[in-house]
Amino acid sequence: MTRDNERADRQRPLAIAGRPVAVRLRARVPALTTRVVARLLSDLPVYAELPHEEIAGDIADIVQHNLRLFADVLEHRRAATDGELAQQRDSAAQRAEEGVPLDAILTAYQVGVAMCWEETAQDAGPGDLPAVLEIMDRILVLQQQLTSAVSGAYLEARQILDSQEHGGRHALMAALLTGEDLDGFTRRTGLRPAARYLTMTLALAPHPDETGAGPARGAGTGSGAGAGVAARRKIRRIRTTLDRFAGTPALTALDASGGTVLLPVAEPPRWDGPGGLCDLIAEATRAAGVPVTAAAETATPDGVPAAVARNGEIVDLVARTGRAPGLYRLADVLLEYQLSRPSEALRGLAGLLSPLDAKPELLHTLETYLGHGLDRRAAAAALHVHPNTVDYRIRRIDRLTGLSPARPADLQHLSAALVARRSV
């Protein structure tokens, strides 16, 4: 074959059975993606235990991206560029943060490449041997590039995570939380605390994939590694949101149920308005996909332990008083906070409602009625009863306790008594 003929041959698209391979592969991407994902779930136990959200989202997306990349490689008869492998590197780093083993990730790529090869070469005949050999060469080069990119990104992410966990930031957070002598800490480690910290305590609801309540997808849902990965994904998204808000990596001690966050700040952040702390918690809620309850207070380094302790009490009070998830400060639960301090008055207040101990339906009605701002129709809807039933029960509460929500002075006592009952 002359050089001109060879050049002309290479300008023609790679074809098998007379059909351009790249065109056929692109047309088959959606169906092939489904088959590859199903194969991963059946052959790799760690993938079968991943959250449904991850399988239908990140995993399916990266499989589809790889298939389209292979079609581009075949169409242009070249190796993949560094930019075309960026999504695979990002995906590998995320899997590293979630604790998915590297060998499982590399096996998944091998499975995908093998199935792509089977799809491409299935109609090949004897006359297609040159095209088959070139396709095999291209796919081996791409597999080598994928292995290198994925392994490098995964190991780099793990190194960063390990250094963060065991390095200076972990030590700094421990020193701040325990009230260690910070001057001595700085002399010993060379690490200097920020002038102020936004201290936050977070309470995170479980994600459906942590409990097995997500969409059904076979064995493994919500168990073992799958639940663990779901929890780590939730935590990673929370951390990413916090880091973006602070403009620097946050100091965090978080597990699946929540924990403590310290954000270095120059000035106390605003509470409301665009870019404020309420927006931050709303964004964290969206990112994590679960309700988030938080308490926040800005403190100097030596005030961090006390601020964190108060935040924890506030989050606990919010949970015990049945308030909605969201961001709270001491002023939002001042009555509950004060009434939660041990005293004889606390028991006396709680005792105001003791005549209702044998009437749980009356106590529940009172809580619901007060919780809906004395709106009898809203309370009735929440209780699934007629508004007249609410009126009747409120009159019975008045007869039994001598207190009625209709009288302003009594309303204050009833509200305080409900808080006291939850605290004793």
Task: Note the topology.
Blueprint: H1 3-11, E1 15-16, E2 19-20, H2 21-27, H3 29-43, H4 45-48, H5 52-76, H6 86-98, H7 102-121, H8 129-166, H9 168-178, H10 182-189, E3 196-204, H11 208-211, H12 224-246, E4 251-255, E5 258-265, H13 277-288, E6 292-299, H14 304-320, E7 326-328, H15 334-339, H16 344-351, H17 360-371, H18 376-383, H19 387-401, H20 408-423
Parallel strand pairs: 6-7
Antiparallel strand pairs: 1-2, 3-5, 3-6, 4-5
Helix pairs in contact: 2-5, 3-5, 3-7, 5-7, 6-8, 7-8, 8-9, 12-13, 16-20, 17-18, 17-19, 18-19
Describe this structure in words.
With 424 residues, this protein is of the alpha+beta class. The protein has 20 helices and seven strands. The protein has a five-stranded mixed β-sheet with strand order 4-5-3-6-7. β4 and β5 form a beta hairpin. α3 packs across α5, α6 crosses α8 and α17 crosses α19. The longest helix is centred in the middle third of the chain and has 38 residues. It is elongated and about 100 Å long. About 2% of the residues have low confidence.
